[in-house]
Amino acid sequence: MPPQDSQDQDDDIALFRQAVGPVEPVRADRATLQPRRPPPRPRQTEAQHQRALEAMVEDPFQVTDIQPGDELIFMREGLQRQVFKKLRRGHYRIGAELDLHGMTAREAHAELGLFIAEARTRRLRCVRIIHGKGLRSSNRGPVLKSRVAHWLQQRSDILAFCSARPADGGTGAVLVLLRLIE
Question: Between 14 and 181, where is the model more confident?
Answer without folding.
Answer: 14
